[in-house]
Design a protein that fits this description.
The chain contains 17 helices and 27 strands. The chain is α+β, with helices and mostly antiparallel strands. Strand 4 (90-93) and strand 5 (100-104) form a beta hairpin. Helix 1 packs parallel to helix 6. It is globular. 51% of the residues are buried. Bound molecules: flavin-adenine dinucleotide.
């Protein structure tokens, strides 16, 4: 534990920025891109000198790709994903080289881009977004996000720098960080965001605890190099091959579509993890064929369903795994973290630019925490479903139980689209009870983890309707608030109300009602969420006050006065 009293003295002039991001994992880097694209100066301090080599996440949802498009890096991310023609299916096998028991099909990147009528008929989920699910190793994504963040002159990355203490005052946060050499530096920031992962010291020192289920399974995650895998198993490509082979149950996941793979071994309840068992033995058992491979890294870990009781307050917030942990079954963890980064990013920018009231920041937890609770529960549910399928592996080996086991797999597999393409989770964030959304009292559609229903009810993501072969409704939105309108001449009252508060607003005329807009005017937030919609502007000043957080001023006073500043040393 670092003790500020006995540690070496701080050398050099203090660094300063508007936002200090603690942790340069994918969520910290995404927040840097979001803030950088809004011209907010930030420093990302990451204790690691390089990048994480072990790819944890391999699935990005369409919403994540939409965020990347807003930062201008969607094409770049696709270039680092699996090859455009690699089919990201989910295949269930006895062993990878053995019988294939079933396959769920998904569109390739090329099909996603080309969007032929046949592709759209086969994969209706592509009508919900410009993007579908994308397979890319987190280890491949992180350098892309790092380089993207460096493109913004206002972003500075400090690698190999660990944040060890902070002290919050009414005006700023004073932070102490430490290089590997032991050299200490001081950083002053208006806000600090802890993107410091599951073991977040920032969360701990904020006094927040984790709520939920501490163990929802046990896994061994092994990253390996095996250029001959696809040829050796003799099967069509897939993003996930499930192995039902007893004592080698789990998923072999494509990382680059060529030679890098991960074996996510799911230990069944009766199995124990033995440190002395070499991971390549269980990989070869799952493959069911002898093929040269090299284990690159391997660890035993416990998936959890935990959400932080607090997402922060005042000048210090949490985002990503520091705020929530979930089983990877479904691929929701990073996707949820990216949603946090975008939600918090525009609010911080609004407050720092002066057109958002600091109370806006209190809506971050109100809006994002329920999304993490929901996603983490679905991830656990997926894990339970997986366990049921994996348990049938033993039954397949016995002739008397094989037929019913096969029938069970066939039935169950098709019922769990949300596990492998959970678009309700990816695209279905909804904040209709948020105090900065003006609800229109129209009925909310029931939420479903798999199926996303495009609706423009305030609090939901603006549906992506194609306006012409190259542009969707998302492409005509600006980076700040956008008023999409069928009657531009009538928008003066709202434009005036926004101008009076200095809230940036782009007005986008759209003809006709073919875009699911409903009434004449639709106000979209900087994060693509519908904030208000209506036929006329009865109280435009109230709308402007509401969406910029000024109506929440009572709560905000507490933040501005900051009666009990936090002083913390991180362990
Ligand atoms: C096996 C597995 C598979 C997964 N698959 C998927 C998937 O397919 N899709 C998906 O969406 N999610 C998936 N996830 C979840 C995903 O990996 C995480 O949600 C994601 O890594 C969270 O990113 P983060 O930036 O919040 O945290 P992290 O990636 O943990 O990064 C935290 C960073 O903070 C730094 N740090 C910590 N403390 C300090 C400090 N005091 N000072 C400075 N730096 C500090 C660390 O060095 C690290 O770089 C998976 C997870 C696992 C384990």
């Amino acid at each position: 534990m670092n003790d500020r009293m006995t540690a070496p003295p701080i050398t050099g002039a203090p660094l300063s920025c508007e936002v200090l991001i603690v942790g340069g994992g994918p969520v910290g880097l995404a927040l840097a891109c979001e803030l950088g694209s809004r011209d907010v100066s930030c420093i990302v301090a990451d204790e690691k000198a390089g990048f994480h080599e072990h790819p944890r996440a391999t699935f990005l949802g369409p919403r994540a790709m939409e965020y990347f498009r807003a930062w201008g890096i969607d094409r770049l991310v696709l270039e680092h994903a699996v090859p455009a023609d690699y089919r990201p299916d989910v295949a269930f096998t006895e062993t990878l080289a053995g019988a294939e028991l079933g396959r769920l099909r998904f569109p390739t990147i090329r099909e996603m881009i080309d969007r032929t009528p046949e592709t759209l008929r086969t994969y209706p989920q592509l009508s919900w977004s410009r993007f579908g699910k994308v397979v890319i190793g987190q280890s491949h994504l992180e350098p892309v996000l790092f380089d993207a963040s460096e493109q913004f002159a206002c972003v500075r990355n400090l690698k190999g720098v660990r944040v060890v203490a902070f002290e919050e005052s009414s005006a700023a946060v004073s932070v102490v960080a430490e290089e590997k050499s032991g050299k200490r530096l001081a950083i002053t920031a208006r806000y600090v965001v802890g993107c410091d992962g599951g073991r977040s010291a920032i969360r701990e020192r904020l006094g927040a605890s984790l709520e939920g289920i501490g163990e929802v399974g046990r896994s061994v995650n092994t990253y390996f190099d095996c250029p001959g895998l696809l040829q050796a198993i003799g099967k069509e490509p897939a993003a996930i091959y499930w192995s039902l082979r007893p004592n080698a149950t789990g998923a072999i996941l494509a990382v680059d579509g060529h030679r890098k793979w991960v074996f996510s071994r799911h230990l069944l309840p009766h199995e124990t993890f033995s440190e002395d068992q070499h991971p390549s033995a269980s990989i070869l058992a799952a493959l069911g064929v002898n093929v040269p491979l090299t284990v690159l890294s391997s660890w035993f870990w416990i998936p959890r369903q935990l959400v932080s009781t607090s997402y922060g307050s005042g000048r210090i917030y949490l985002a990503g795994d520091s705020a929530h942990l979930m089983s990877p079954t479904g691929g929701y963890g990073l996707n949820t973290g990216l949603g946090d980064a975008v939600n918090l990013g525009w609010k911080l920018a609004a407050v720092l630019k002066g057109w958002g009231h600091p109370a806006l920041l209190s809506t971050y937890e109100q809006e994002r925490r329920p999304m993490a609770v929901r996603a983490s529960k679905e991830a656990t549910d997926n894990r339970a479903f997986t366990r049921e399928i994996l348990k049938t592996g033993a039954l397949l080996l016995d002739e008397s139980t094989r037929a019913p086991a096969l029938a069970f797999i066939e039935r169950t597999m098709h019922r769990h689209g949300k596990h492998f393409d959970g678009n309700g989770i990816y695209l279905g964030d909804r904040y209709d009870h948020s105090p900065i959304v003006v609800d229109d009292d129209s009925p909310q559609i029931p939420w479903d983890a798999e199926v996303y229903v495009p609706i423009s009810k305030p609090g939901n993501r603006l549906p992506a309707h194609w306006l012409d072969p190259s542009a969707t409704t998302h492409d005509v939105c600006g980076r700040d608030f956008t008023l999409i309108t069928r009657n531009p001449a009538a928008t003066q009252p709202l434009q005036q109300a926004f101008a009076q508060r200095g809230i940036p607003l782009k007005v986008t005329p759209l003809e006709g009602n073919a875009h699911g807009m409903g009434p004449a005017h639709l106000l979209v937030r900087p994060d693509g969420i519908v904030a208000w919609k209506g036929r006329s502007f009865q109280d435009p000043a109230e709308v402007a006050m509401r969406v910029s957080g000024f109506q929440l001023s009572a709560q905000a006073t507490a933040h501005q006065d900051s009666p009990s500043p936090k002083t913390k040393a991180l362990s």
